[in-house]
Amino acid sequence: MFNYVGDISELSHNIINKYLKNKNVAIDGTLGNGYDTDFLSLNFNKVYSFDVQEKACIRYSDKNKDNVTVICDSHHKFNNYITENVDCIMYNLGFLPGTSKEITTKHTTSLESIKTGLEILNPGGIMTICIYIGHDEGKKEQSCILNFLEKISKKEYGVMIHQFLNRSKTAPMLVVIEKNS
Ligand SMILES: C[S@@+](CC[C@H](N)C(=O)[O-])C[C@H]1O[C@@H](n2cnc3c(N)ncnc32)[C@H](O)[C@@H]1O
Hints:
seven-stranded mixed beta sheet; 181 residues; alpha/beta; binds S-adenosylmethionine; globular
């Protein structure tokens, strides 16, 4: 049993809770079963939550959470739906365990979404990205996202990765980006 070196989704929640000062508006870029959206809904005034799977969107909408807007569209279209800046953006990339692996996030749209997300992130805001590299598309996402992030301005953004060293080479990794305040 590990408290810190365990589940990267839980770690992302803990980091957001501890280090993010303003918790007004948040985006969940990958709604899925809604665990991250539940967390954001508890801690933020307003949450936008995206997924391309209608089933996931309907299931979450049925919870009727007052502060959550579910958007059944791809996360690379943030600007079509959101006209304000946000304090936090979370991604849990890949596919939903137990469902079709075909409906997975794709490196091109994931990267486009991350780029747009960084633009609408408030100073002091935090973006977290869980990347699952045990499948081909996940490996592409890892490589193109890390390639992009290692080149972004270090004055404007701090970027850290959390990666297991003594587990499988395909264990998931967590990327945390903080926008300079
Ligand atoms: C690993 S799951 C997310 C898990 C989720 N955060 C949770 O708490 O259960 C990835 C989700 O991303 C969704 N997805 C795939 N492509 C997407 C896209 N372009 N835009 C938004 N969501 C997408 C999938 O349908 C899937 O539900």
